[in-house]
Amino acid sequence: MNLFKQLQRRLKSVNRNCVSMCLTLVITLYYSSAFSETGYRLWMRYDRIENNKQLEQYRSQLQTINFQGHSITAQVAKKEISSAFNGLLGTEPKVTLSSSASLLIGTPENSPQIKSLITPKELLNLSDGYLVKTFHNKGQQQIVIAGLTEKGVLYGVFHLIRLMKTQQSLSALTIREIPSIKNRVLNHWDNLDGTVERGYAGTSLWEWHKLPGFTQTRYTDYARANASVGINGTVLNNVNANALSLTKPYLLKAAALANVFRPYGIKVYLSARFSSPIEIGGLKTADPLDPEVKRWWSMKVKEIYAYIPDFGGFLVKANSEGQPGPQNYGRSHADGANMLADALAPFDGIVMWRAFVYDDKVPDDRAKQAYNEFKPLDGKFRANVLVQVKNGAVDFQPREPFHPLFGAMPATPLMMEFQLTQEYLGFSTHLAYLGTLFKETLAADTYAKGKGSTVADVVTGKLDQHQLTGIAGVANIGSDVNWCGHPFAQSNWYSFGRMAWNPGLSATAVADEWIRMTFTNDINAIATIKEMMMGSRETIVNYMTPLGLHHIMARNHHYGPGPWVKDAGRADWTSVYYHKADAVGIGFDRTATGSNAIAQYSPDAAREFADLANIPDKYLLWFHHVKWSDKLRSGNTLWDELVSHYYLGVRDVAKMQSQWKAMAGKIDEDRFKEVAELLEIQHEEAKWWRDACVLYFQSFSGLPIPASYEKPAHDLAYYENLRFYFVPGIKN
Amino acid sequence: MNLFKQLQRRLKSVNRNCVSMCLTLVITLYYSSAFSETGYRLWMRYDRIENNKQLEQYRSQLQTINFQGHSITAQVAKKEISSAFNGLLGTEPKVTLSSSASLLIGTPENSPQIKSLITPKELLNLSDGYLVKTFHNKGQQQIVIAGLTEKGVLYGVFHLIRLMKTQQSLSALTIREIPSIKNRVLNHWDNLDGTVERGYAGTSLWEWHKLPGFTQTRYTDYARANASVGINGTVLNNVNANALSLTKPYLLKAAALANVFRPYGIKVYLSARFSSPIEIGGLKTADPLDPEVKRWWSMKVKEIYAYIPDFGGFLVKANSEGQPGPQNYGRSHADGANMLADALAPFDGIVMWRAFVYDDKVPDDRAKQAYNEFKPLDGKFRANVLVQVKNGAVDFQPREPFHPLFGAMPATPLMMEFQLTQEYLGFSTHLAYLGTLFKETLAADTYAKGKGSTVADVVTGKLDQHQLTGIAGVANIGSDVNWCGHPFAQSNWYSFGRMAWNPGLSATAVADEWIRMTFTNDINAIATIKEMMMGSRETIVNYMTPLGLHHIMARNHHYGPGPWVKDAGRADWTSVYYHKADAVGIGFDRTATGSNAIAQYSPDAAREFADLANIPDKYLLWFHHVKWSDKLRSGNTLWDELVSHYYLGVRDVAKMQSQWKAMAGKIDEDRFKEVAELLEIQHEEAKWWRDACVLYFQSFSGLPIPASYEKPAHDLAYYENLRFYFVPGIKN
Fold first, then answer.
1. pLDDT of residue B257
2. Contact B44/A35, CB-based, under 8 Å?
3. Number of other CB atoms surrounding residue B507 within 10 Å
4. A214 and chain B: CB distance < 8 Å anywhere?
5. Closest Cα of chain B to A671: distance in Å?
6. Helix or strand or coil: residue A644?
7. For burial by CB atoms within 10 Å, which of A40, A207, B116, B361 has the most?
8. Which is higher by pLDDT, B358 or A109?
9. Residue A9 near chain B (CB below 8 Å)
10. Domain layout of chain B by residue ranges
């Protein structure tokens, strides 16, 4: 309903006092009527702006709106801005066709006013970007949101809403935003039975059984949330794919989701099981060079586009961890990817081919195998293939050096794969803001074309002039009412989207935005919460895997410490393989005297990693086997340094707890209580990690835990014998 | 915050117009700021009352409140009434200690005012009931909510809120409510891995992995919803129980839930696996007469009460469908139940022992077996044992005659078990209001002590003077944001609670309440939606199992029709066993010429069922094998009648669709769209049921489908060959 009209009608008879009194009353009442605060609304909480001065100013700046455009995307943009204004301002600008509207929204094509105000130069290469500009003509202020496409307009609308929710001034806007990466995609590791591999926020959002007929309201909110941070694609099913996903019934279900997502500019993708031609096609082979196989895939792709005209393409995990692939037929990853790419090309579909493979024969350093496989294939992929590379060479650890493939395949567009779901970072009970991890990787220097050749430059295509670019986030979204399990885990969905759009954003800036939109605009609260977030990932590194340690989590489910894990199916599924602790020292020698994985990096990067005098402590044990007694930069021995990191990690969780206690009353009771409970769990589990790891490594070093530290609560055997049932994220 | 004070403070300076203007504005704004409508708020939607006259009257009647009591239950009652008033009225009565407060709440013990106003006689045997009364002294009106216990007060508070949400007058209240059944319990068939057996609303609410440390806000909302309808117990885990539920880690998790539920008067119960002493106790036997087994259980019970002081007791499924039980040791169900009862007795815990058993040897009519087992045990159970009997003798079919055990075990308190989750009624995509099913069963006459010995009289203990009484509902609640999957499925949670409290309530009255609280107070909309609800279950009976047919659903997952199912593990797991269709006719002869199950009913009931002239058509094929050509009361042959019911069922779904279309604009867009989509699915599946069943039965009758009816879309083979993957509710 148009509140502005009502307001006007009623204001005639009453005086100013009354109005402001009403507004305050409104605000009070608004907050009082809510059901309990579940976190469902994410960062899109359109509650009345509490700062009255700001509120009044926005109201005066946004009195009339001229919003052109009638596409499905324009329609949802209009709906969004209307509910945002109703919520944030408690009024809705009067809709007008006047060129003097205080808010002008549209594209040069559908809006003559915008065509006249915006120069062609400003629109050059805007792609799905937008302008948000403030104009002043004869004392009259106008705000313009312009895009070349209506998708751009939608993003611009969300930008304006973000400005208001973070209480920025609208008086002198000169915003020109263009996405730095073309395909900004969530990967859902969701199975058709509703389970989510490595999912810690309930089960899959997709109700396959009720699709295509039933599309719950929540799907729309999912699309809104993604669009609000610029995510423009989603892979619906697990990379460990079930061929059934490509059968007609499931394609129709995927099409129903695509219909919900389309207005929000989100394309649907599917993980394709490489052996599908055999499993659902009745062929005897899936050999990518077999003409029948090629024909089958091109017919299948044609069928998909008949149901989903804007289908995005395939994500493929092949010849990795038991998945079928081209190598089963003596073909290369390029052969496999190109065959699918040829089927998709006529429809502008793309292939996202994962580089996360490791040879199940050659016992080379696991960290080297993706590079070994793919580096030789550089330049051999079709133009519509992206090679999707995890941020690090092992597997989404709390910290890894950047993957050596970045910068090593100049002739191939590389797509970044981050993991938002906290498989190795405490599931959904540990507070981990990953914006810092994303940033650390994106800012890392590959030296591929000399100093300043950052991973971000590779992924954005800047370094090697690729037009096709992409970034993927393995989703941490599930059926939990609050979407991500931990209220703070929402920040990783948010920051992934924001940094995918603009890798130049700082982790602090993104955290600041998210806190304001999700919790409060109280500057003291923001400062405290931001400090918690910015330190949170380092804290986890400290109590789990300090100084470059990695992959020492419990077997299979990865819940809790398991540095003692050995005798798994293969060496590189054990912890001892990665930490290599012995009586002398600890760490994986990846220098020339060891696996020489370092040689996979460009010389300047390699030199820094190889040189014990220069390598940052945080990567030390990733690349070097170091003596327990060796002195580190700090002056401490490795043993003392290691122990101090573990204890620091626990102390810093306790610090977060006290910081959070101070937030009481500054945010709603419900989320305050939830986070307080989760921090308590995290504190207990951090101690568990610390004590288990310190005791285990002590059994090699034989060195004492400094007397100043509290003693572990139990002996090593206790921790080694802990067993857990029904741990989430795996098939139990 | 106390809005009333703020209102007052600000009103000083302004005139009446302004106030009413403000209030209207408030109302407008309130509705405008909501996120999408997911249904999460159930029937507890504290939105501003739209009827201004009513709103003003409530405001004037509820200006000051004197609420005594400080227990945890009193505290949540205060919180509830405050958020209800803030939401419904937009103001909060001023809190006062004055005896002239317009709203007086408390118990005679904690409130002298109530002690003086309420006579001891009114409080007699009030148990957890309450009074809600309007007093008038010297022109001054007072509303009193009084209970003997603070639980009673909480229920009374919810009653007042219900009156306001349904817009009843508060001017002459003389309400005295006492629960007719003592234990009103939800049974969650939730597994420790998060799956829910026969669950169609997502997965389990209980996040076992995050418990006991993390108790999400949603648990509180679950407790609030239950308390609002008088449910006072919940069995957390599946009757097909995992012994791990009784180990310390899981007991501590259950205790954490109990702590959340306790203030709302909800006790926690657990399903106990009978073989637990072997599986987690290390004993060699679970023989209920074995002293070590007895000792183990009494120690285990003692342990449970150490964690959960108000633990409710055990629910047990024994010697049924492969579950272990006393018969494994040559003991009776009574031996098993009594052994557990003795362990629980010192703590006032109870045993709910399920009568849903069927012998895996004797090939007697499945419908007779529970009676055969339990009837002889009447009087042999301890005083703290309830025998839990399903509403019908087979298994939660769309329609069953009442279970012959009701009225047949006068010396034993029988607990009713209804199924809220729609295992056999279209999962969560078919609109089925089960209030009519509950009512049909409760009102059924057992004739046990002459005419008028209803099932309700048995369950309430009235017929045989039992103090210990109970009723169970197999929950349809899961992780779906709207709790129950289908927006209308919420009505079954609601109506179960309401009828458990008062079996005398009519299905119409309960539907009316629920619609007003969940959707709207618009009388035209209410009339339409109520008509849809009241006919919905009969519609499903018509297109699934008309005229007394039963258990002809698809094998195992029960999704869709499967009248052709034969050759299962055992005869009574097939459909052909139940419908017995042949060239002559169809139906299960349970008269003296057949299995004589009829003899299990008391003579008067039996006579009605046995007599073809008197038996209602709805039970015909349950008790009789009838010739295709036999004429029924309608004058139609059985075949024509059968076909007409199937076609009627489909037509009535189409009618619901057109009725619902008319609700556009009368309720929120989101739930309108969801229900519209679900009705379309239901319509498709109803046709599937109709065509599959009519074609299948036609293959026996050889008779034509009357030309006036549309022809089935496919042939019988098509329906027989349909296959589905990942159907919810079972382990796939």
1. 98
2. yes
3. 24
4. yes
5. 8
6. helix
7. A207
8. A109
9. no
10. 2-34, 52-177, 183-518, 542-588+625-720
Interface test with B, best of A3, A20, A22, A247 (most B CBs within 10 A): A22
- Where does B138-178 have alpha helices with state H? 150-165
DSSP-derived secondary structure for B640-694: HHHHHHHHHHHHHHHHHHHHHHTTBTTB-HHHHHHHHHHHHHHHHHHHHHHHHHH
Backbone angles phi, psi at B299, to 5 degrees: -65, -40
Interface contact flag, A32 B87, Cβ < 8 Å:
yes
Residue B57 clears pLDDT 90, i.e. is over it: yes
Average pLDDT over every residue of A527-545: 98
Q: Chain B interface, mutation test: which of A2, A30, A32, most B Cβ atoms within 10 Å?
A: A32
User: What is the Cα–Cα distance from A290 to A278, expressed in whole angstroms?
Assistant: 12
The amino acid that residue B569 corresponds to is G
Phi, psi of A214 (to 5 degrees): -115, 120
The ipTM assigned to this model is: 0.94
* B343 close to B298: Cβ distance less than 8 angstroms: yes
**A471 residue type, one letter:** I
- The verdict on a CB contact (< 8 Å) between A44 and B37 is no
CATH of B52-177, one of 3.40.50.2000, 3.40.30.10, 3.30.379.10, 3.40.50.10330: 3.30.379.10
- Extract the runs of DSSP E, i.e. beta strands, from B150-289: 174-177, 183-187, 233-235, 267-271
In the predicted model, what is the mean pLDDT of residues B161-173? Answer: 97
Q: Does B18 touch chain A (CB under 8 A)?
A: yes
Q: What is the pLDDT of residues B139-155, one digit of tens each?
A: 899 999 999 999 999 99
Q: Which amino acid, residue B95? A: V
Nearest chain B CA: its distance from A220 CA (Å): 9
A183-518 shares its CATH topology with A542-588+625-720: no
* CA–CA dist A248, B623 (Å, integer): 43
B244 contact A CB<8A:
yes
Cβ A725–B220 below 8 Å, yes or no?
A: no
Nearest CA in chain A to B39: A217
pLDDT score recorded for residue B596: 98
* A546 contacts: CB under 8 Å, gap ≥ 6: A642, A645, A646, A649
Among B30, B36, B221, which residue's Cα sits nearest to residue A44? B36
Classified by CATH at the fold level, domain A183-518 comes out as TIM Barrel (3.20.20)
| A44, pLDDT greater than 60 | yes
Catalytic residues of A: 321, 395, 423
Identity (one letter) of the amino acid at B322?
G
Kindly state whether A36 is in contact with chain B, defined as any CB-CB distance less than 8 angstroms: yes
Four-point Cα dihedral B598, B601, B607, B613, nearest 10: -60
Distance, in Å, from the CA atom of A49 to the CA atom of A164, rounded to the nearest integer, reads 8
Q: What is the DSSP letter of B709?
A: S
Place of tokens 């044992």: B385
Cα of A602 to nearest chain B Cα, Å: 44
What is the pLDDT, as a whole number, of residue A629? 98
Put simply, whether A22 touches B (Cβ < 8 Å) is yes
pLDDT tens-digit map of A674-687:
999 999 999 999 99
Q: Is the model's pLDDT at B3 over the cut of 70?
A: no
Shortest Cα–Cα distance, A90 to chain B (Å): 6
A542-588+625-720: CATH superfamily: Alpha-glucuronidase, C-terminal domain (3.90.1330.10)
Q: DSSP label at A283?
A: -
Contacts of B681 in chain A (CB under 8 A): 210, 213-214
Asked which of A2-11, A36-45, A176-185 is least confident by mean pLDDT, the reply is A2-11
Residue A35: helix, strand or coil by DSSP?
coil
